[in-house]
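Marked as duplicate of an earlier ticket. Keeping the data here for the record.
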Amino acid sequence: MLMKITKKKKSYVDFLEISKIFSKAELLHAQGNFEDAKKAYIHVLSLNPEHIESNVKLAAIYLNDGAFAKAEELYVKVV
């Protein structure tokens, strides 16, 4: 029983951490700070590789940077 509670608590903590980092990434992105936004999106994806919004927004940054293969890889991942 204790193991199940611990797993749920960790999952909740991960969700809060991901939400916080993603919000920071969006703010940085909106401010035009693409390098730091990219790092924050990558951090989110290290915690949850299937985070759709981070994949899409990071792909947009890569596309803008001319890193077409990286952008395509992320876009394909969310389709």
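See parent ticket for discussion. Residues 2-30 form the longest helix (29 residues).
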